[in-house]
Specification:
The structure holds two protein chains of two kinds. Chain A is an alpha+beta fold. In chain A, 27% of the residues lie in helices and 42% in strands. Chain B is of the alpha/beta class. Chain B folds into two domains: 4-26 and 253-293, ATP synthase, gamma subunit, helix hairpin domain (Helix Hairpins); 34-251, Pyruvate Kinase, Chain: A, domain 1 (3-Layer(aba) Sandwich). The chains are: A alpha+beta, B alpha/beta. At the A-B interface, strand 1, strand 5 and strand 8 of A face helix 1, helix 4, strand 6 and helix 6 of B. Strand 5 (44-48) of chain A pairs parallel with strand 6 of chain B.
Protein backbone atom coordinates (compact mmCIF):
# COMPACT_ATOMS: atom_id res chain seq x y z
CA UNK A 1 0.00 0.00 0.00
CA UNK A 2 1.30 3.41 -0.90
CA UNK A 3 2.56 5.62 1.90
CA UNK A 4 -0.31 7.74 3.11
CA UNK A 5 0.20 11.34 4.09
CA UNK A 6 -0.35 12.32 7.67
CA UNK A 7 -2.41 14.97 9.39
CA UNK A 8 -2.56 16.15 12.96
CA UNK A 9 -5.16 14.83 15.35
CA UNK A 10 -6.06 15.99 18.86
CA UNK A 11 -8.47 14.33 21.23
CA UNK A 12 -9.34 16.69 24.07
CA UNK A 13 -11.57 16.12 27.09
CA UNK A 14 -12.35 18.68 29.79
CA UNK A 15 -9.83 17.20 32.19
CA UNK A 16 -6.92 16.96 29.78
CA UNK A 17 -5.67 16.33 26.29
CA UNK A 18 -5.86 12.59 25.58
CA UNK A 19 -4.09 12.37 22.26
CA UNK A 20 -2.03 14.80 20.26
CA UNK A 21 -0.13 13.59 17.23
CA UNK A 22 -0.11 12.64 13.57
CA UNK A 23 -2.26 9.96 12.02
CA UNK A 24 -3.00 8.44 8.62
CA UNK A 25 -6.67 8.02 9.18
CA UNK A 26 -9.26 8.43 11.89
CA UNK A 27 -12.73 7.00 12.23
CA UNK A 28 -15.15 8.74 14.58
CA UNK A 29 -18.71 7.89 15.63
CA UNK A 30 -20.72 10.65 13.97
CA UNK A 31 -24.30 11.09 15.05
CA UNK A 32 -25.59 9.74 11.74
CA UNK A 33 -22.95 7.09 11.29
CA UNK A 34 -19.22 6.64 11.36
CA UNK A 35 -17.06 9.23 9.66
CA UNK A 36 -13.65 8.31 8.28
CA UNK A 37 -11.15 11.08 7.64
CA UNK A 38 -7.88 11.00 5.72
CA UNK A 39 -5.37 13.79 5.22
CA UNK A 40 -6.57 16.82 3.21
CA UNK A 41 -10.17 16.19 4.07
CA UNK A 42 -12.58 19.01 3.32
CA UNK A 43 -13.45 21.24 6.30
CA UNK A 44 -16.05 19.47 8.38
CA UNK A 45 -17.90 19.95 11.61
CA UNK A 46 -19.99 17.19 13.12
CA UNK A 47 -21.73 15.99 16.24
CA UNK A 48 -20.42 12.83 17.82
CA UNK A 49 -22.31 10.21 19.71
CA UNK A 50 -20.79 7.83 22.21
CA UNK A 51 -18.86 5.04 20.59
CA UNK A 52 -15.49 4.00 19.33
CA UNK A 53 -12.91 6.37 17.87
CA UNK A 54 -10.03 4.79 15.99
CA UNK A 55 -6.80 6.57 15.20
CA UNK A 56 -4.63 4.85 12.58
CA UNK A 57 -1.02 5.84 13.11
CA UNK A 58 1.64 5.75 10.39
CA UNK A 59 3.23 2.45 11.41
CA UNK A 60 -0.02 0.57 11.04
CA UNK A 61 -0.69 0.86 14.74
CA UNK A 62 -4.27 1.67 15.70
CA UNK A 63 -5.28 3.46 18.87
CA UNK A 64 -8.84 2.77 19.80
CA UNK A 65 -10.67 4.98 22.24
CA UNK A 66 -14.08 4.73 23.82
CA UNK A 67 -15.42 8.26 23.51
CA UNK A 68 -18.44 10.01 24.96
CA UNK A 69 -20.65 12.48 23.10
CA UNK A 70 -19.08 15.63 21.75
CA UNK A 71 -17.91 17.51 18.69
CA UNK A 72 -15.66 16.87 15.74
CA UNK A 73 -13.94 19.37 13.54
CA UNK A 74 -11.63 19.06 10.57
CA UNK A 75 -10.03 22.24 9.43
CA UNK A 76 -6.90 22.83 7.29
CA UNK A 77 -5.52 19.34 7.77
CA UNK A 78 -6.15 19.28 11.50
CA UNK A 79 -8.73 17.10 13.17
CA UNK A 80 -10.10 17.97 16.57
CA UNK A 81 -12.18 15.64 18.67
CA UNK A 82 -13.79 17.43 21.62
CA UNK A 83 -15.65 14.96 23.83
CA UNK A 84 -16.93 14.55 27.38
CA UNK A 85 -14.75 11.56 28.07
CA UNK A 86 -12.26 9.38 26.23
CA UNK A 87 -10.64 6.16 27.43
CA UNK A 88 -8.05 4.08 25.65
CA UNK A 89 -9.49 0.58 25.21
CA UNK A 90 -6.30 -0.88 26.65
CA UNK A 91 -6.69 1.18 29.82
CA UNK A 92 -10.31 0.71 30.71
CA UNK A 93 -11.02 0.97 34.40
CA UNK A 94 -14.05 -1.23 34.94
CA UNK A 95 -14.91 0.23 38.33
CA UNK A 96 -14.87 3.73 36.89
CA UNK A 97 -17.10 2.63 34.00
CA UNK A 98 -19.51 0.98 36.42
CA UNK A 99 -19.66 4.17 38.45
CA UNK A 100 -20.36 6.15 35.26
CA UNK A 101 -23.07 3.71 34.30
CA UNK A 102 -24.77 3.83 37.68
CA UNK A 103 -24.62 7.60 37.78
CA UNK A 104 -26.07 7.95 34.29
CA UNK A 105 -28.83 5.42 35.02
CA UNK A 106 -29.74 7.23 38.22
CA UNK A 107 -29.88 10.45 36.26
CA UNK A 108 -32.14 8.85 33.65
CA UNK A 109 -34.36 7.57 36.45
CA UNK A 110 -34.69 11.04 37.92
CA UNK A 111 -35.45 12.38 34.47
CA UNK A 112 -38.20 9.83 33.92
CA UNK A 113 -39.78 10.45 37.31
CA UNK A 114 -39.89 14.14 36.40
CA UNK A 115 -37.58 15.12 39.25
CA UNK A 116 -35.22 16.87 36.88
CA UNK A 117 -35.55 18.06 33.34
CA UNK A 118 -32.77 17.47 30.97
CA UNK A 119 -31.28 16.41 27.74
CA UNK A 120 -32.34 12.80 27.42
CA UNK A 121 -30.08 12.17 24.45
CA UNK A 122 -27.05 13.23 26.44
CA UNK A 123 -27.81 10.91 29.33
CA UNK A 124 -28.45 8.00 27.01
CA UNK A 125 -25.10 8.66 25.38
CA UNK A 126 -23.42 8.53 28.78
CA UNK A 127 -25.00 5.15 29.40
CA UNK A 128 -23.86 3.90 26.01
CA UNK A 129 -20.35 5.15 26.65
CA UNK A 130 -20.18 3.26 29.95
CA UNK A 131 -21.76 0.13 28.50
CA UNK A 132 -19.32 0.11 25.63
CA UNK A 133 -16.35 0.31 27.99
CA UNK A 134 -17.76 -2.55 30.05
CA UNK A 135 -18.42 -4.66 26.96
CA UNK A 136 -14.82 -4.24 25.89
CA UNK A 137 -13.53 -4.96 29.37
CA UNK A 138 -15.55 -8.17 29.26
CA UNK A 139 -17.94 -7.52 32.10
CA UNK B 1 0.52 31.89 89.12
CA UNK B 2 -0.19 28.74 87.16
CA UNK B 3 1.61 25.68 88.39
CA UNK B 4 4.12 23.75 86.32
CA UNK B 5 1.55 21.03 85.81
CA UNK B 6 -0.99 23.45 84.31
CA UNK B 7 1.52 24.93 81.93
CA UNK B 8 2.72 21.52 80.85
CA UNK B 9 -0.83 20.52 80.06
CA UNK B 10 -1.35 23.65 77.96
CA UNK B 11 1.85 23.07 76.03
CA UNK B 12 0.80 19.52 75.28
CA UNK B 13 -2.57 20.67 74.03
CA UNK B 14 -1.09 23.35 71.80
CA UNK B 15 1.44 20.92 70.48
CA UNK B 16 -1.27 18.56 69.30
CA UNK B 17 -3.15 21.46 67.69
CA UNK B 18 0.08 22.37 65.95
CA UNK B 19 0.40 18.86 64.59
CA UNK B 20 -3.09 19.06 63.13
CA UNK B 21 -2.64 22.48 61.53
CA UNK B 22 0.73 21.45 60.13
CA UNK B 23 -0.78 18.32 58.60
CA UNK B 24 -3.66 20.31 57.13
CA UNK B 25 -1.19 22.77 55.66
CA UNK B 26 0.74 20.01 53.93
CA UNK B 27 -2.41 18.33 52.63
CA UNK B 28 -3.74 21.65 51.32
CA UNK B 29 -0.41 22.34 49.60
CA UNK B 30 -0.50 18.98 47.83
CA UNK B 31 -4.12 19.45 46.79
CA UNK B 32 -3.38 22.96 45.63
CA UNK B 33 -0.67 21.70 43.32
CA UNK B 34 -3.08 19.18 41.81
CA UNK B 35 -5.82 21.79 41.48
CA UNK B 36 -3.46 24.13 39.66
CA UNK B 37 -2.50 21.37 37.25
CA UNK B 38 -6.16 20.70 36.56
CA UNK B 39 -6.74 24.36 35.67
CA UNK B 40 -3.88 24.21 33.19
CA UNK B 41 -5.07 20.85 31.85
CA UNK B 42 -8.56 22.07 31.04
CA UNK B 43 -7.36 25.07 29.06
CA UNK B 44 -6.98 23.30 25.69
CA UNK B 45 -10.56 22.07 25.89
CA UNK B 46 -11.88 25.51 26.82
CA UNK B 47 -9.91 27.26 24.08
CA UNK B 48 -10.94 24.82 21.38
CA UNK B 49 -14.53 24.97 22.53
CA UNK B 50 -14.51 28.73 22.17
CA UNK B 51 -12.96 28.55 18.70
CA UNK B 52 -15.54 26.03 17.61
CA UNK B 53 -18.47 28.02 18.93
CA UNK B 54 -17.22 31.23 17.34
CA UNK B 55 -16.71 29.72 13.91
CA UNK B 56 -20.00 27.83 14.01
CA UNK B 57 -22.01 30.86 15.03
CA UNK B 58 -20.46 32.84 12.20
CA UNK B 59 -21.63 30.17 9.82
CA UNK B 60 -25.11 30.19 11.28
CA UNK B 61 -25.38 33.96 11.10
CA UNK B 62 -28.77 34.29 12.64
CA UNK B 63 -28.62 32.98 16.20
CA UNK B 64 -32.06 34.01 17.37
CA UNK B 65 -34.26 31.45 18.96
CA UNK B 66 -31.61 29.80 21.09
CA UNK B 67 -32.92 30.03 24.65
CA UNK B 68 -29.59 30.57 26.41
CA UNK B 69 -28.71 33.53 24.20
CA UNK B 70 -31.94 35.40 24.54
CA UNK B 71 -31.37 38.47 26.68
CA UNK B 72 -34.32 39.91 28.54
CA UNK B 73 -35.01 42.89 30.72
CA UNK B 74 -33.64 42.00 34.15
CA UNK B 75 -36.34 41.50 36.73
CA UNK B 76 -34.97 38.48 38.58
CA UNK B 77 -31.34 37.65 39.15
CA UNK B 78 -29.99 34.30 40.28
CA UNK B 79 -27.04 34.71 42.63
CA UNK B 80 -24.79 31.67 42.72
CA UNK B 81 -21.97 31.90 45.27
CA UNK B 82 -19.45 29.05 45.04
CA UNK B 83 -18.14 28.19 48.51
CA UNK B 84 -16.30 25.25 50.01
CA UNK B 85 -17.65 22.21 51.81
CA UNK B 86 -15.35 22.77 54.74
CA UNK B 87 -14.19 25.70 56.78
CA UNK B 88 -10.77 26.44 58.24
CA UNK B 89 -9.76 28.22 55.07
CA UNK B 90 -9.33 31.78 56.24
CA UNK B 91 -11.57 34.28 54.53
CA UNK B 92 -12.30 31.97 51.60
CA UNK B 93 -15.96 31.28 52.34
CA UNK B 94 -16.72 34.51 54.14
CA UNK B 95 -15.55 36.82 51.38
CA UNK B 96 -17.67 35.14 48.71
CA UNK B 97 -20.74 35.35 50.88
CA UNK B 98 -20.01 38.93 51.89
CA UNK B 99 -19.83 39.95 48.24
CA UNK B 100 -23.02 38.04 47.47
CA UNK B 101 -24.95 39.79 50.21
CA UNK B 102 -23.64 43.15 49.01
CA UNK B 103 -24.86 42.30 45.52
CA UNK B 104 -28.21 41.27 46.91
CA UNK B 105 -28.60 44.63 48.65
CA UNK B 106 -27.67 46.54 45.48
CA UNK B 107 -30.02 44.55 43.29
CA UNK B 108 -32.91 44.82 45.71
CA UNK B 109 -32.34 48.56 45.94
CA UNK B 110 -32.90 48.66 42.18
CA UNK B 111 -36.12 46.72 42.61
CA UNK B 112 -34.71 43.50 41.20
CA UNK B 113 -35.73 40.22 42.73
CA UNK B 114 -32.97 37.87 43.87
CA UNK B 115 -33.02 34.09 43.88
CA UNK B 116 -30.32 32.09 45.59
CA UNK B 117 -28.53 28.99 44.41
CA UNK B 118 -25.36 27.83 46.05
CA UNK B 119 -22.39 25.52 45.65
CA UNK B 120 -20.72 24.12 48.79
CA UNK B 121 -21.95 23.14 52.24
CA UNK B 122 -20.53 26.22 53.93
CA UNK B 123 -22.51 28.56 51.75
CA UNK B 124 -25.62 26.45 52.07
CA UNK B 125 -25.64 26.41 55.86
CA UNK B 126 -24.79 30.06 56.07
CA UNK B 127 -27.58 31.07 53.69
CA UNK B 128 -30.07 28.86 55.49
CA UNK B 129 -29.05 30.43 58.77
CA UNK B 130 -29.93 33.80 57.29
CA UNK B 131 -33.29 32.48 56.10
CA UNK B 132 -32.61 32.78 52.40
CA UNK B 133 -34.69 30.46 50.30
CA UNK B 134 -32.43 28.26 48.21
CA UNK B 135 -33.72 27.26 44.79
CA UNK B 136 -30.98 24.66 44.55
CA UNK B 137 -27.70 23.69 46.13
CA UNK B 138 -24.82 21.52 44.98
CA UNK B 139 -22.46 20.07 47.54
CA UNK B 140 -19.82 17.43 48.03
CA UNK B 141 -17.36 18.32 45.30
CA UNK B 142 -15.77 21.66 46.20
CA UNK B 143 -12.50 19.86 46.94
CA UNK B 144 -12.10 18.24 43.58
CA UNK B 145 -14.84 19.13 41.14
CA UNK B 146 -15.33 16.82 38.16
CA UNK B 147 -16.74 17.74 34.80
CA UNK B 148 -19.91 15.86 35.71
CA UNK B 149 -20.43 18.25 38.64
CA UNK B 150 -20.08 21.20 36.30
CA UNK B 151 -22.65 19.61 34.00
CA UNK B 152 -25.10 19.27 36.87
CA UNK B 153 -24.69 22.91 37.87
CA UNK B 154 -24.88 24.10 34.27
CA UNK B 155 -28.00 22.09 33.78
CA UNK B 156 -29.77 23.50 36.81
CA UNK B 157 -28.90 27.06 35.82
CA UNK B 158 -29.92 26.68 32.17
CA UNK B 159 -33.28 25.31 33.21
CA UNK B 160 -33.97 28.30 35.42
CA UNK B 161 -32.90 30.61 32.65
CA UNK B 162 -34.63 28.89 29.76
CA UNK B 163 -37.92 28.73 31.66
CA UNK B 164 -37.59 32.49 32.27
CA UNK B 165 -37.66 32.12 36.06
CA UNK B 166 -34.55 34.28 36.15
CA UNK B 167 -33.26 36.81 33.64
CA UNK B 168 -29.59 36.86 34.61
CA UNK B 169 -27.34 34.38 36.34
CA UNK B 170 -24.42 35.74 38.36
CA UNK B 171 -21.70 33.42 39.57
CA UNK B 172 -19.74 34.70 42.58
CA UNK B 173 -16.51 32.86 43.33
CA UNK B 174 -12.87 33.13 44.33
CA UNK B 175 -10.62 33.49 41.35
CA UNK B 176 -7.23 31.93 41.85
CA UNK B 177 -4.47 34.51 41.51
CA UNK B 178 -1.55 33.06 43.46
CA UNK B 179 -1.51 30.47 46.23
CA UNK B 180 -1.86 33.23 48.82
CA UNK B 181 -4.15 35.64 46.96
CA UNK B 182 -7.68 34.95 45.87
CA UNK B 183 -9.94 37.65 44.56
CA UNK B 184 -13.69 37.43 44.60
CA UNK B 185 -15.19 37.93 41.17
CA UNK B 186 -18.71 37.99 39.88
CA UNK B 187 -19.27 36.62 36.42
CA UNK B 188 -22.44 36.96 34.43
CA UNK B 189 -22.75 33.55 32.82
CA UNK B 190 -26.28 33.77 31.48
CA UNK B 191 -27.27 35.14 29.06
CA UNK B 192 -24.04 34.17 27.35
CA UNK B 193 -21.96 37.23 26.47
CA UNK B 194 -22.24 38.10 22.80
CA UNK B 195 -18.43 38.10 22.45
CA UNK B 196 -18.58 34.32 22.71
CA UNK B 197 -20.30 34.21 19.36
CA UNK B 198 -18.50 37.06 17.70
CA UNK B 199 -15.04 36.07 18.84
CA UNK B 200 -13.29 37.85 21.69
CA UNK B 201 -10.57 39.32 19.58
CA UNK B 202 -11.66 40.43 16.15
CA UNK B 203 -8.13 40.70 14.80
CA UNK B 204 -7.20 37.20 15.84
CA UNK B 205 -10.42 35.69 14.58
CA UNK B 206 -9.82 33.21 11.79
CA UNK B 207 -11.11 34.35 8.40
CA UNK B 208 -14.58 33.01 7.82
CA UNK B 209 -14.48 29.76 5.91
CA UNK B 210 -18.15 29.87 5.07
CA UNK B 211 -19.45 27.83 2.21
CA UNK B 212 -16.69 25.26 2.22
CA UNK B 213 -17.43 23.61 5.54
CA UNK B 214 -19.53 20.48 5.71
CA UNK B 215 -21.85 20.25 8.67
CA UNK B 216 -23.29 17.05 9.99
CA UNK B 217 -26.19 17.31 10.59
CA UNK B 218 -26.32 21.13 10.14
CA UNK B 219 -24.74 24.20 11.70
CA UNK B 220 -27.83 25.25 13.69
CA UNK B 221 -28.11 21.87 15.38
CA UNK B 222 -24.42 21.86 16.18
CA UNK B 223 -24.58 25.36 17.65
CA UNK B 224 -27.58 24.43 19.74
CA UNK B 225 -25.51 21.62 21.23
CA UNK B 226 -22.34 23.69 21.55
CA UNK B 227 -23.87 26.45 23.64
CA UNK B 228 -24.77 24.29 26.65
CA UNK B 229 -21.36 22.62 26.34
CA UNK B 230 -19.71 26.02 26.47
CA UNK B 231 -21.67 26.93 29.57
CA UNK B 232 -20.53 23.69 31.21
CA UNK B 233 -16.94 24.51 30.37
CA UNK B 234 -17.21 27.99 31.88
CA UNK B 235 -18.74 26.60 35.05
CA UNK B 236 -16.11 23.87 35.21
CA UNK B 237 -13.45 26.55 35.00
CA UNK B 238 -15.07 28.51 37.83
CA UNK B 239 -15.33 25.37 39.98
CA UNK B 240 -11.66 24.56 39.41
CA UNK B 241 -10.59 28.12 40.19
CA UNK B 242 -12.65 28.06 43.33
CA UNK B 243 -11.16 24.71 44.38
CA UNK B 244 -7.61 25.95 43.84
CA UNK B 245 -8.43 29.11 45.80
CA UNK B 246 -9.88 27.06 48.63
CA UNK B 247 -6.74 24.97 48.95
CA UNK B 248 -4.56 28.06 48.70
CA UNK B 249 -6.56 29.88 51.36
CA UNK B 250 -6.53 26.84 53.64
CA UNK B 251 -2.82 26.41 53.17
CA UNK B 252 -2.01 29.98 54.20
CA UNK B 253 -4.55 29.97 57.04
CA UNK B 254 -3.02 26.77 58.40
CA UNK B 255 0.49 28.10 57.96
CA UNK B 256 -0.43 31.11 60.11
CA UNK B 257 -2.07 28.87 62.67
CA UNK B 258 1.02 26.67 62.84
CA UNK B 259 3.22 29.69 63.28
CA UNK B 260 1.05 31.03 66.08
CA UNK B 261 1.12 27.66 67.79
CA UNK B 262 4.91 27.58 67.60
CA UNK B 263 5.17 31.05 69.13
CA UNK B 264 2.77 30.10 71.87
CA UNK B 265 4.71 26.94 72.65
CA UNK B 266 7.97 28.93 72.87
CA UNK B 267 6.40 31.45 75.17
CA UNK B 268 4.83 28.85 77.43
CA UNK B 269 8.05 26.86 77.61
CA UNK B 270 9.77 30.00 78.84
CA UNK B 271 7.09 30.61 81.43
CA UNK B 272 7.31 27.03 82.56
CA UNK B 273 11.07 27.15 82.96
CA UNK B 274 10.71 30.31 84.99
CA UNK B 275 8.09 28.69 87.19
CA UNK B 276 10.32 25.67 87.72
CA UNK B 277 13.26 27.89 88.64
CA UNK B 278 11.05 29.83 91.05
CA UNK B 279 9.95 26.57 92.71
CA UNK B 280 13.56 25.44 93.11
CA UNK B 281 14.63 28.80 94.55
CA UNK B 282 11.73 28.72 96.98
CA UNK B 283 12.60 25.21 98.11
CA UNK B 284 16.24 26.16 98.68
CA UNK B 285 15.16 29.22 100.65
CA UNK B 286 12.92 27.02 102.75
CA UNK B 287 15.72 24.55 103.40
CA UNK B 288 18.16 27.35 104.27
CA UNK B 289 15.59 29.06 106.49
CA UNK B 290 14.91 25.72 108.19
CA UNK B 291 18.64 25.17 108.79
CA UNK B 292 19.02 28.71 110.21
CA UNK B 293 16.17 28.09 112.63
CA UNK B 294 18.02 25.17 114.19
Amino acid sequence: MAERSLFSVSVVIPERSVFDGDAEMIVVPGEDGEIGVLARHVALEALLKAGSTRIHLSGGEVIELATGPGFFEVHSNRALILVDDAVDLREIDASRAIAQLEEARAELGRLESGEIEGDRWRIEQKIKHAEYQLAVAGN
Amino acid sequence: MASQQDIKRRIRSIRSTHKITKAMELVAAAKLRRAQQRIVAMRPYADRMLELITSTSQAVGNVRGLPLLESRETRTVALVPLTGDRGLAGAFNAQVLRRSFALERDLQAQGIEVRWLVGGKRGRSSLRFRHRELAKSWTGFSDQPGFGDAQAVAHGLSELYASAQVDTVLLVYNRFVTPITQTVVEQEILPLPSQVLEGFDEEDAPPPVRGEVLYEPDSETILARLIPAYLETEIFRALLESAASEHGARMSAMRNASKNAEELIDHLTLVMNRARQADITREILEVVAGADAL
